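hi! just following up on the protien thing from before. the input was this:
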Amino acid sequence: MYRNTNPFLLILCLLCCTKAAFSQCPIGLALSSTNLFVNGDFSNGNSAFTSSYSYCNTAGCLTSEGTYTVATDPGFYEPTFEGSDHTTGTGNFLIANGATTSNTSVWCQSVPVDPNSYYEISYWVSSMDTTSPAQIQITINTFPFFAEFQCTVNYQYLEAFCRNMGFRNHHLCQRLSREHKYVCRWK
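and the predicted 3d structure came back as:
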């Protein structure tokens, strides 16, 4: 998440969120460069977020559904998985084997927000299996935010704006709507 202290607006959600002050119209608002998500790029590994999936970190451990890891080489954890970080190709990213129960949260984080402020939410996502592409739903305080979407094997960048009407905290979750293999990296 990015926080914006300037009276101008741009955008985010893998999760990147930016605050912008609102005047008459959001046109021309500028984003802050501060990401409000802690460890949004997974550089600190499996930390600062929660998951309803089971964490694993041994060779072949992602062959079971409903498991995830944060790493640089998906093939080490599931031999059929291919992929890499979308930025440098060598960084950490979230790698998950979809749960058999629909709408299970694979990544969640609570983020402090200011009432009556605009936020950009954005992220990068990719499916690791062409035969069963991941379908993802983002929620804010349990309510769907983005429309559910189907991932491709190529990284996709998703972004949207939201206006916080009075909450002091947003609890964002990324859910897989059915069993899928996918990778994720918040901006």
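Residues 2-186 form a domain with the Jelly Rolls fold (CATH 2.60.120.260).
The first helix runs from residue 74 to 77.
cheers
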